[in-house]
Structures are given as structure tokens and as C-alpha cells.
Amino acid sequence: MAKVQVGDSLYSKNKIFPDHKAEPGQRALVQIHGMFTEASVTLIALLTATRLQRKGFETSILLYGPSGVLLGSGTKGYPKVGDEFYPGHLAHSQRLTQFMKEGGKVYVCQFGLGATGFREEDLLEGVIPVDPLDVLDISLDHYKSGAFIMGTWM
User: Fold this and answer.
1) What highest taxon heads this organism's lineage (predicted)?
2) From the first residue on, what is the mean pLDDT of each consecutive set of 10 residues in the chain (154 residues)?
3) Beta strands in the chain (DSSP E)
4) Is 11 inside any structural domain?
């Protein structure tokens, strides 16, 4: 067997399901109660939200809980705000910013902000703070409209 080279495909194409696209007016909500320092689950949720947006869903992200709201912080970086200390350090902020540039909405729970010592002024531009009671009501709003809802919890 030949040695694997950079760029070689390791697997055959095995896409089984159709590439579904949203019908006009369909919505999606991605709930993230995760940490920006625990990259895997949270980063996949952010990438999935972007993919839903690109498939035509009117997509929103809800950041809640003391750990989830840290994702919406616009004050990350070291030694200065916005400096990426190591490759990938600001990947979550970059994904959220890209998602919003593509038309996605990001909501963050005010309770989580207060619990972690962040202010609304510390959020990434475009992140919308909401009352803690809206954490349930945004989910119910999407549910009542028949939206696709995906939740992450870490």
C-alpha cells in the first residue's frame, strides 16, 4: 500500500442524505451553554449555526449561562484586546462575527453577563442582550413557528 501524502483523500464520498435547504421563512435556533475555552462542542455549534444560515434558515444563536455568555465578549485577547495569543485563541469570536456578517442574530442573557462581571458594552458588536426570562421565550417563539432548534450544554 502506498504511503499517504498530504492532500490524499482517506475516505470515499459517502453522503447519504439530501442537501436540505430552508423553505422561505423557515427558522433555526442554536442554544449554546458552553465555554469558549472548551473548543470542540462550542465551536461545532457555531459552525453548525453558520451552515444553517447558509442553507437559508433565518438563524439565531442564544448564548446563555455564565459560561455561554463569555462567547459574546468583545474584550478578549492578549496582551491587547483583539490580539490572538496563539492560533485559534479567538476562533469563537471570529466565528460569531462571521455569522453575524452573514445575517445571523446573536442574543446573550443579561444574567450570564452579570454573573461573569461583563457589561453590555463589553459585547462583540451586534450581539443583542436579552432579559433572563427571554431565554425560555426565545425557545418557545422558535418552537411555535416550527423552527429547527439545536441545544448544546457543557
Assistant:
1) Bacteria
2) 88 89 96 72 92 98 87 90 90 94 97 90 95 95 96 77
3) 27-33, 58-63, 105-109, 128-130, 148-153
4) no
